[in-house]
Amino acid sequence: MQIQPLDASFGAIVTGVNLDRMDKPLLSAIHESWLEYGLLIFPEQFLTNAAQITFARNFGELEIDLAAISNLLRDGKVRDDQPDDEVLKVLKGNMGWHMDSTYMPVQATGAVFTAHVVPEKGGETAWADMRAAYDALPASQKEEVNGLKAYHSLYYSQKRAGFGPSANGSYIGYGFNNQEPPLRPLVKIHPETGRPNLVIGRHAYGIEGLSAEASEKLLTDLLEFSCQAPRVYQHQWQAGDAVLWDNRCLMHRACSWDLREARVMYHTRIAGDPSSEYAAAV
């Protein structure tokens, strides 16, 4: 296994491995590198869906076994860009910085993502290092954010992004079943590394004890500060790429592309450990 760190505060490209042929020493090495770098990129893996699920299960129980992140219809045609298309609403919403499942009672541990069909231009995925973001905060701002908590809601983030409910008043898709927003600390200690990191992103709002305006300003300032070099990396996908990332310390977002072009990715979400990722609804 060869590891080439990215030109960022996190992340690495991993070569010399076959993810569908894992043994205990290799798995241990990958797990250790995952905790160190947060994001591991494995080029030219061409994993089958079954192999992707099997690989992800090495890192815990699964919250989502396999979900197609795609702008194709069942017949293989590209979706028309219609404002009430529920799938496209989700795809467009995911272009905002976020951590997965912070709006659920238990935040996801991480994810495995694979590229099957990629557009000629655009459609990248970007990640941001929330460990380095916290480390870079001035001491006075660290003192300000320690102890603060914010609500997290997918209803809130989709509506704020302009992707409100359909004409019948409902949303369609995973995550909208959780209507009681969890209250999560803005600063979290990673359960395996012990490093503090920020927990913010588009799902976060309504910091406890602050006015709506003060909460919005603080969350926006933290987001803008966090998502600056060298704390960000944007990956240009090639078909066959696989990535593994730590959702406990990285934010991510999809980048825009010409929606007349196909983009087909597969997402497997690793369930969080309730002992460290649970946030009770308030």
Any overview of this molecule?
With 282 residues, the protein is α+β, with helices and mostly antiparallel strands. It has a single domain, classed as Double-stranded beta-helix (4-Layer Sandwich). It has helices spanning 24-37, 49-56, 86-93, 130-136, 139-145, 154-160, 212-226, 274-277, and strands spanning 2-5, 12-15, 39-42, 62-70, 110-117, 125-129, 149-152, 183-185, 187-189, 196-198, 204-205, 232-235, 242-246, 250-254, 264-270. A seven-stranded mixed beta sheet has the order 1-2-3-13-5-15-4, with helices on one face. β2, α1 and β3 (39-42) form a beta-alpha-beta unit. It is globular, with a radius of gyration of 18 Å. It starts with a strand and ends in a 5-residue tail after the last helix. The mean pLDDT is 95.
Can you lay out the helices and strands and say which pair or pack?
Blueprint: E1 2-5, E2 12-15, H1 24-37, E3 39-42, H2 49-56, E4 62-70, H3 86-93, E5 110-117, E6 125-129, H4 130-136, H5 139-145, E7 149-152, H6 154-160, E8 183-185, E9 187-189, E10 196-198, E11 204-205, H7 212-226, E12 232-235, E13 242-246, E14 250-254, E15 264-270, H8 274-277
Parallel strand pairs: 2-3
Antiparallel strand pairs: 1-2, 3-13, 4-15, 5-13, 5-15, 6-12, 6-14, 7-8, 7-11, 9-10
Are there runs of 5+ residues with pLDDT below 50, and where? Answer: none
CATH class: Alpha Beta
Number of strands: 15
Fourth CATH level, the homologous superfamily: Clavaminate synthase-like
In DSSP terms (H or I, runs of 4 or more residues), the helix count works out at: 8
General form? globular
> What's the helical proportion of residues?
10-25%
Tell me the distance between the termini.
Answer: 46 Å
The secondary-structure class comes to alpha+beta
Strand numbers in spatial order across the main sheet: 1-2-3-13-5-15-4
Tally the structural domains.
1
Can you name the CATH architecture? 4-Layer Sandwich
Radius of gyration over C-alpha positions, nearest whole angstrom: 18 Å
Strand content bin: 15-25%
Major sheet description? 7 strands, mixed
CATH topology title:
Double-stranded beta-helix
Q: What multimeric state do the chains show? A: single chain
- Provide the residue-averaged pLDDT: 95
Order of helices and strands: EEHEHEHEEHHEHEEEEHEEEEH
